[in-house]
Design goal:
The protein is about 30% helix and about 25% strand. It is of the alpha/beta class. The protein has a single domain (about 5-150, about 175-230), classed as Spore Coat Polysaccharide Biosynthesis Protein SpsA, Chain A (Alpha-Beta Complex), CATH 3.90.550. The protein has a seven-stranded mixed sheet with strand order 5-4-1-6-10-7-11, sandwiched between helices. Strands 2-3 form a two-stranded antiparallel ribbon. A two-stranded antiparallel ribbon has the order 8-9.
Length: about 230
């Protein structure tokens, strides 16, 4: 894989979070949470620029200390609970292209709350994406629970049913995966034409569950703290 071929890495990190306030810079084993994502992006050496977008000055300041190439102040209307992360990514790419005076070919987006991804996860995802010539790719891990047998929902008439009924023609249920937030990749022009997570040719890259923890609650943070001390 060519190490740098007009790829941009975007890390979006809002200041607000209802479940775990300030989660993007919460302390994890002596370092702010977002620093793990910045380090993995920089150490992968796979993108021309590593950009952090946030509405929070403290997050931007921390990101600068850990080597982000560009800090983008996100508008308030793109930092609400209802705002789309896809719109925030688009804004970050547009501002980055203005700043660096170039047009990117590939967008790589990393969630700030997935600290255990490794640089090779980014590298391998990009390699698979570019070899497949797909419109986009995102990383997943194998689902612990199958919707065919253990995930239920309650209908409007309060009837409890399986979320997904198995196809009776299949001898065994299909493998199921969970989007883990570690890596998302798009062809830049495809993304700007139609912002979506799913296209007809979308690909996935499977990661092990131990590198797929997404921190969204205090329990997740405690779990991550216990795990990192035993690495």
């Amino acid at each position: 894989m060519d190490k740098k071929t007009n790829r941009i890495c975007i890390i979006c990190a809002r200041g607000g979070s209802k479940r775990l306030p300030g989660k993007n810079i919460k302390n994890l084993n002596g370092f702010p949470l977002i620093s793990y994502t910045i380090k993995s992006a920089l150490n992968s050496k796979s993108c021309d620029d590593v950009v952090v977008s946030s509405d929070c000055e403290e997050i931007l300041s921390v990101s600068s200390k850990f080597g982000a190439n560009l800090l983008i102040k996100r508008p308030d209307h793109l930092a609400t609970d209802e705002a789309s992360s896809l719109d925030a990514i688009e804004h970050a790419v547009v501002e980055s292209e203005k700043n660096f005076q170039k047009k990117y070919r590939t967008i790589v987006f990393l969630e700030a709350t997935t600290p255990f991804r490794k640089p090779e996860d980014i590298i391998n995802s990009i390699e698979l994406f570019e070899k497949s010539d797909a419109s986009n790719l995102f990383t997943v891990c194998r689902a612990k629970e199958s919707p065919y047998s253990s995930i239920v929902e309650v209908s409007e008439n309060e009837r409890v049913v399986l979320s997904k009924k198995p196809d009776l023609d299949d001898k065994k249920p299909k493998a199921c995966f969970v989007i883990n937030g570690a890596v998302y990749i798009w062809k830049r022009d495809v993304f700007f034409k139609k912002k979506s997570l799913f296209y007809d040719d979308t690909k996935i890259y499977e990661m092990p569950i131990e590198r797929s923890l997404d921190i969204d609650t205090e329990f997740d943070l405690k779990l991550a703290s216990c795990y990192i001390k035993n690495l």
